Amino acid sequence: MARENFLSAVYLLFIKDNKVLLQRRQGTKLWNGYLALPAGHLDSGEDVYTTAIREAKEELSINISKPDISDTFVVNRKNKILMPYFDVYFVISGYEGEIKINEPVKCKELVWADINNLPPDMIDYEAQAIEYWKKGIYFSTFNETNDVISS
Question: End-to-end CA distance of the chain, in Å?
Answer without folding.
Answer: 25
